[in-house]
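Reviewer comment 2.1 asked that we show a complete input and output for one of the modelled complexes. We chose the 2'-O-acetyl adenosine-5-diphosphoribose case, as it is the one discussed in the main text.
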Amino acid sequence: MIRIDNNLIEALKESKSIVFFTGAGISAESGIPTFRGKEGLWNKFRPEELASFNAFIKNPKLVWEWYNYRRKIVHEAQPNPAHLTIAEMQNHFKDVTVVTQNVDNLHRRAGSNKVFELHGNIERNFCINCKKFHNEELDFSTGVPKCECGGLIRPDVVWFGEYLPEDQFLGGEKAAIESDIFFVVGTSVVVYPAAGLIYTAKASGAIIVEVNLEETDLSSSANYSYFGKAGEILPNIFEEYKLNTNL
Ligand code: OAD
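Response of the prediction step:
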């Protein structure tokens, strides 16, 4: 157990609106690989060959193999204590919002019901031509699945060079502006515009709390930084809060 600052617990007691801004690290303990670092996906694979629209047009089969591989990992994974703690906190705070860069759907599966997905959701697909959603089980037996209109079907994730879904970004931005405490959990804080929301929250007066295995560019300007596993630190913070409020 790490020591949680009393001032953070006091701030939690006063807070109405809490945001959890999350990245791949929060799902690492569920067995889903992160992108950066020694074991990161982008160390073994080239993003420009797998996660861009041009790559998809050039070799849709390869891109789909990559997403089906990741989808399988996600389906076999379960939410971990970090996801579950965030979901449980909904019962104790007026407003708990998740703004995630993850596409794995684990926050919703854990029970969080206010979730903004900045980079899409690997469970969904849509046609590149008519944009119709195809969230049914796709059939790959005769090649890359196509829509009735003839367009190729792609996963509903944000690729390099693409815009973030506007409604999700605006929802995340509003939550950041309104937040009293803004937790930044398991993200390397290097991918923009997503990471910019941290600074939006800070500029709007939120207390910034970082939870990560290691230091990031944010650490020196965060109000509190806790280094360790999200699946241990978030339950740790919440337990401390409950002890202090006699829950
Ligand atoms: P990264 O892989 O860049 O960073 C993961 C972060 O999680 C690192 O800072 C790790 O130190 C930390 N971490 C790992 N395990 C952890 C644990 N158990 N507890 C706490 N922290 C842990 O992932 P993201 O920051 O999410 O974009 O990457 C941002 C975006 O880059 C992704 O959404 C993806 C990628 O390209 C798109 O696909 C558009």
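Residues 1-31+79-119+164-247 form a domain with the Rossmann fold fold (CATH 3.40.50.1220). We note this here for comparison with the apo prediction described in Section 3.2.
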